[in-house]
UniProtKB/TrEMBL annotation:
SUPFAM superfamilies linked: Ras GEF
Protein name (record): Ras-specific guanine nucleotide-releasing factor 1-like
Domain of life of the native organism: Eukaryota
Taxonomic classification: Eukaryota, Metazoa, Ecdysozoa, Arthropoda, Chelicerata
Classification via CDD domains: RasGEF
UniProt cross-references to InterPro entries, sorted A to Z: Ras-like_GEF, Ras_G-nucl-exch_fac_CS, Ras_GEF_dom_sf, RASGEF_cat_dom, RASGEF_cat_dom_sf
UniProt keyword list: Guanine-nucleotide releasing factor
Keyword RNA-binding annotated: no
Length: 230
């Protein structure tokens, strides 16, 4: 599934079914967090939900589940959530610091430099972010030919690909020993909780309407006129 960018081909569902499932699962968890926030009209409850998921993301970090950290951070950076300025203003300073620290950890800067450092320092069990490795493999596939100028197999390219796949396999060897909770599992897998992007953004606008530039221009002058009048 990891060879020849199979996950990007037309027949990807049959050639790379598990990669497609991982990608879909990543998006579903992010969407679950955003959906939970958008269906909560009370600002105090939204603040509680942000603080809860920030704590979950930090626990994922402690468990070396970097994929989980990024899923939740991606939800916080989603335009529907990110724009809720009044909600974020009420989030505790401690939680904001935790979120900032996690965003730095999973940032794509320097080809995910911080996450790679953390990965190489930790012992399995561990769940890396698969997208990082898919990006690596795409760079290798697109930037290096399969054959040398002499028509020989390009072994240095094959070694680079093997190195990436070996690292993925390394993290597959050690399973987590976590007791399954049916209540949590059912919640996380309940697709009925997921809303579509356009619906999420409309709800976001309802929760915290956009301040129009025109209205601020209309609101500001009266006070200045009043001062002249007096």
């Amino acid at each position: 599934e990891l060879l020849g960018q199979a996950w990007m081909k037309a027949e990807k569902t049959t050639k790379a079914p598990h990669i497609i499932l991982m990608t879909r699962r990543f998006n579903d968890v992010s969407r679950l967090v955003v959906s939970e926030l958008m269906r909560t009209p009370e600002i105090a409850k939204r603040v509680f939900i942000i603080e809860k998921w920030a704590a979950v993301a930090d626990i994922c970090r402690c468990l070396h589940n970097f994929n989980g950290v990024l899923q939740i951070c991606a939800a916080f950076m989603n335009s529907s959530v990110f724009r809720l300025k009044k909600t974020w203003e009420k989030v505790s300073k401690t939680t904001k610091q935790t979120v900032d620290k996690l965003q730095v950890l999973v940032s794509a800067d320097g080809r995910f430099r911080n996450m790679r450092d953390a990965l190489h320092r930790c012992d399995p069990p561990c769940i890396p972010y698969l997208g990082m490795y898919l990006t690596d493999l795409s760079f290798i596939e697109e930037g290096t030919p399969n054959f040398t100028d002499e028509g020989l197999l390009n072994f240095s390219k094959m070694r680079m690909i093997a190195h990436v796949i070996r690292e993925i396999r390394h993290f597959q060897q050690t399973p987590y020993k976590i007791q399954m909770s049916p209540k949590v599992t059912n919640y996380l897998l309940d697709e009925k909780r997921l809303m579509q992007d356009d619906e999420l953004y409309q709800l976001s606008l309802c929760l915290e309407p956009r301040l129009s530039r025109l209205s601020t221009k209309i609101i500001l002058p009266p006070s200045s006129f009043g001062s002249h009048g007096s």
